[in-house]
Design a protein that fits this description.
The complex is a heterodimer of chains A (112) and B (114).
Chain A (H helix, E strand, L loop, with lengths): L2 E4 L4 E4 L4 E8 L3 E9 L6 E7 L4 E4 L2 E6 L4 E6 L8 E9 L5 E3 L3 E6 L1
Parallel strand pairs in A: 2-11
Antiparallel strand pairs in A: 1-3, 3-8, 4-5, 4-9, 6-7, 7-8, 9-10, 9-11
Chain B lengths: L3 E4 L2 E4 L5 E7 L5 E8 L3 E10 L2 E4 L7 E2 L9 E3 L8 E8 L9 E2 L3 E5 L1
Parallel strand pairs in B: 2-11
Antiparallel strand pairs in B: 1-3, 3-8, 4-5, 4-9, 5-6, 7-8, 9-10, 9-11
Classes of the chains: A mainly beta (112), B mainly beta (114).
């Protein structure tokens, strides 16, 4: 069966460190993968998209990698700040189909 | 301001009483969709629409209806709500059929069915 897995346990890190979040998938052939940020009680906000033929994408303090062999994407926030505390969702679109499927999200807590 | 709006934001209702959650976007987006979010299950797509008069089922369409008569509006209809439809609902839109476009999400509607 198809699965998108993110660590359901919260990730706690110290301010200034790099946060690394993982998104693993099985039985998908993703055309691309997206990362979203969600704050409590709010809708997800798009952060980054990486295509299947791209290895890495950066945007300011954010970096996403995509390994289609390992079937994994890593999401990094460098020099993390307490304001980065939120739930981060990965989502992927299969090559076949018109839907975007989301992982369960990982909650990140950055302590000052 | 470019945005997706949903109404109502909060709704408590009883089993069997038909309700509609409205969704509207002002960005001239072609693609719109509805999701529900439940603890431990993440965001699951209910229905989506690639353009006016074109709708299709997502992962969890049972018990829901949608319509897309105009580009900007995509209402979600629960003809006979049941307690298992208690959830947080999000509407989203993007410029075209996903492609590489950003999906913009509404603020959410928290529905409780008693």
């Amino acid at each position: 069966s198809q699965k998108i897995e993110q660590n359901s346990e919260a990730l706690n890190i110290q301010e200034g460190k790099t946060a690394t979040l993982t998104c693993n998938y099985t039985n998908y052939s993703p055309a691309y993968l997206q990362w979203y940020r969600q704050d409590p009680g709010r809708g997800p906000v798009f952060l980054l998209l990486i295509r299947e033929n791209e290895k890495e994408k950066r945007k300011e303090r954010l970096k996403v990698t995509f390994d289609t062999t390992l079937k994994q994407s890593l999401f990094h926030i460098t020099a993390s700040q307490p304001a980065d505390s939120a739930t981060y969702l990965c989502a992927l679109r299969n090559n076949a189909g018109n839907m975007l499927t989301f992982g369960g999200g990982t909650r990140l807590m950055v302590k000052p | 301001e470019a945005q997706v709006t949903q109404n109502p934001r909060y709704l408590i209702t009883v089993t069997g009483k038909k309700l509609t959650v409205t969704c509207s976007q002002n960005m001239n987006h072609e693609y719109m969709s509805w999701y529900r979010q439940d603890p431990g299950l993440g965001l699951r797509q209910i229905y989506y629409s690639m353009n006016v008069e074109v709708t299709d089922k997502g992962d969890v369409p049972e018990g829901y209806k949608v319509s897309r008569k105009e580009k900007r509006n995509f209402p979600l209809i629960l003809e006979s709500p049941s307690p298992n439809q208690t959830s947080l609902y999000f509407c989203a839109s993007s410029l075209q059929e996903l492609s590489t476009d950003t999906q913009y999400f509404g603020p959410g509607t928290r529905l409780t069915v008693l």
